[in-house]
Amino acid sequence: MIRPTLAAALIVLSVSPAVAQPPDPQPPPPEIEGFAKQILVPDLYENEKEFEVQSRPEIFIQTRFSRGRVSGAAPEDATQNFELTRLETRWAGHLSDRVGVGLELQFHPALEGAAEELVNDAFLELYVTPGLTVRAGQFVKPWGFDVPRSSADREFPERGMFAGYFFPGQRDRGLMLMWDAGADAPVLKDTHIYAAFLNGNRFFADRDGHLDALFRVRRVFPSLGFAAGVSLQVGNQLLPPDDVSGNDGATIVGADAQYVTGRLGLRVEAVHGTRPSTLLALEPEFAPAFAPGRKTTGLAAGAIYRLNDVNQAYGRFDMLSGDPVTGENARAVDIGVLHTIDEHARIGVNWQWKNRPTFNDDDINTRFQVTIGVVF
After folding, report:
1. Which of 88, 92, 150, 237 has a beta carbon 3.0–4.6 Å from 102's, enabling a disulfide?
2. Residue 333's CATH number
3. For residue 114, what pLDDT is reported?
């Protein structure tokens, strides 16, 4: 027989509301993956801390077939038929918990008689804190979105026209600080800050006795499917022998943004600054349309649509105002498709309308291109 006091207690418990339990902790936000990662956070300029140096290098081969010169392009300014556009090999990774290295060699210029361009990257890096890396040597400039993107990953056949004039070869020599701010200060998660001091010339060796300073800040907003960055470079450049103005200052500013929603990705990048005085060459080659005080502006805006797991369609508008060679304005529209063959290879078919040829590094002065790239 149950005693009254015990029975009363059981009745109270049976009708009392359940004691509230603390809610389960919220799961961490999902990592940016797949198509969203391709649009927002591809490998731009990360350190080598997560990789081990392998005795076998990574190799990248890219070949292209081109036809149809753009209006006004001379035969020597529009490479046609078959060409080897990239042949590169790379070793990179960490040597210890504190030290990393990178070495990349490109062979396609040597086949064309320009063996001076053999070395792409040659740098060492020190891991000062979980987020701060110091890199020294020859490396890709941390400028904007299009400049540091690898040819193995880029959707469009080549970078925007501005990149080949302002940043030919994409690289320089110097010292760079790379800070993944969120690794040291959680409140700054998804924020990356860069500062570099560089020779600031067109072919690595310093020729003017000055250093250029480059700064960049980029923030990703995963929940919004949005990322944006701003870049600034200040320094000096060589003047033509007949220029007596002495105004050798050079300033370049840029902004870029990326957005993804569902199957659609959008990118835009704008650059404005002092017109480059020289082109990419071993010895100084002065740009014919350069003059002190003149400016050059570039804009590239593209859309990428994911058709399925292996096919994408794209379009891009590319504009350059104040071509350093001609002084004219150049405009181009690209449309194409990109097919992923497997994890190693992909093929792209591109049609381009362009109102006049350009003479920047990695220019394309043909209307039709088929590009195949393989990484292994």
Report:
1. 92
2. 2.40.160.10
3. 66
